[in-house]
């Protein structure tokens, strides 16, 4: 096998995150291979969003390394760092669309920031991303306030995919959606993941989303990763949070 395929796309090594007296991550290690779809779970306040923010370069850990595509994101000059970050897409909780910009301009935003494409090309790329998330081209002229919760998620996903990332990070992708919309959004993520061959890391509290989307689960508890394995293997991990969590997972696995 080609060594590029076996190399982790993201490696977190001995990471500490400390806010004042609050130690959130302590000696945390996590490795994610290309092509995986992995969910990050843990109790409220255990540091999941903070870890995603380290991975996308928004914040820097107090100590330790975050390697993306084999490179230390936090020890690079701004230009190569930005180039590396362009290989990631992030879907934030609530979508985080720019409220004053239309759907079209929201999706075009990262493309325009690159300053590599003319407007005609940007137009084509935005329409392509809209179709990828199964939205009509005329939705492009709407403002975020004119969209339903499910549509906001789709537009935010289209924007996260604008630069054709290799790694997609999703923070609570189905939060705020009713079960029907949530299921449809999960199906959309799955089909995009398969058609684009992405690696996906997502945070969710929703066990239905987790069981439906994931290959692997990484459990954050006691300030570090206590399990990183397939869903069914969670049952073998002797940790109270994992055992408790696995009860909910097992019920859903039995239904599938
Ligand atoms: N910028 C910050 N300054 C100080 N403390 C912070 C900051 N960001 C996060 N924290 C703290 O870090 C801890 C982890 O927060 P984080 O949002 O990463 O948890 P989480 O696992 O995503 O939680 P939830 O599941 O409730 O969204 C919390 O105690 C939070 O208060």
Number of domains: 1
List bound small molecules.
adenosine-5'-triphosphate
CATH topology heading: Rossmann fold
Gyration radius from CA atoms, angstroms: 18 Å
Approximate shape? globular
Q: What's the quaternary structure here?
A: single chain
Q: What is the count of helical runs?
A: 9
- CATH hierarchy: architecture: 3-Layer(aba) Sandwich
Quick one: how many beta strands?
10
CATH superfamily: P-loop containing nucleotide triphosphate hydrolases
- How much helix, percentage-wise, in residues? 25-40%
CATH class call: Alpha Beta
- For the termini, the CA-CA separation is 33 Å
Could you characterize the architecture of this molecule?
It is a single chain. It is built from nine helices and ten strands. It is globular, with a radius of gyration of 18 Å. It has one domain: Rossmann fold, CATH 3.40.50.300. A hairpin with a 2-residue loop joins strand 9 and strand 10. The protein is of the alpha/beta class and 256 residues long. The longest helix is centred in the last third of the chain and has 18 residues. Adenosine-5'-triphosphate binds next to strand 2 and helix 2.
Which helices and strands occur, and which strands form pairs?
Elements (H helix, E strand, L loop, with lengths): L2 H4 L1 E12 L2 E12 L3 E6 L5 H8 L7 E6 L2 E2 L5 H8 L2 E4 L11 H12 L4 H14 L16 H12 L6 E5 L7 H18 L2 E5 L3 H7 L2 E6 L2 E7 L9 H16 L1
Parallel strand pairs: 3-8, 3-9, 6-7, 7-8
Antiparallel strand pairs: 1-2, 1-4, 4-5, 9-10
The structure holds adenosine-5'-triphosphate.
């Amino acid at each position: 096998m080609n060594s590029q395929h076996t190399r982790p796309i993201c490696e977190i090594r001995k990471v500490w995150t400390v806010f004042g007296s609050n130690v959130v991550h302590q000696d945390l290690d996590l490795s994610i291979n290309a092509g995986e779809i992995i969910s990050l779970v843990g109790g409220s306040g255990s540091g999941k969003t903070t870890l995603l923010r380290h991975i996308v370069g928004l914040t820097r850990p107090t100590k330790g390394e975050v390697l993306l595509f084999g490179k230390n994101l936090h020890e690079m000059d701004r230009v190569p760092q930005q180039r590396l970050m362009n290989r990631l897409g992030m879907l934030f909780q609530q979508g985080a669309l720019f409220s004053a910009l239309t759907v079209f301009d929201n999706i075009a935003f990262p493309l325009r920031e690159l300053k590599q494409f003319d407007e005609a090309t940007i137009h084509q790329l935005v329409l392509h991303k809209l179709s990828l998330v199964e939205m009509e081209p005329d939705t492009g002229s709407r403002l975020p306030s004119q969209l339903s919760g499910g549509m906001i998620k789709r537009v935010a996903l289209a924007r996260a995919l604008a630069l054709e990332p290799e790694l997609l990070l999703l923070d609570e992708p189905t939060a705020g959606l009713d079960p029907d919309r949530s299921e449809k959004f999960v199906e959309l993520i799955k089909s995009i993941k398969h058609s684009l061959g992405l690696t996906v890391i997502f945070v969710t509290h929703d066990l239905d989303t987790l069981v439906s989307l994931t290959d692997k689960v990484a459990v954050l508890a006691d300030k570090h990763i206590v399990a990183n394995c397939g869903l069914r293997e969670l049952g073998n991990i002797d940790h109270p949070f994992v055992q408790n969590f696995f009860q909910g997972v097992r019920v859903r696995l039995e239904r599938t």
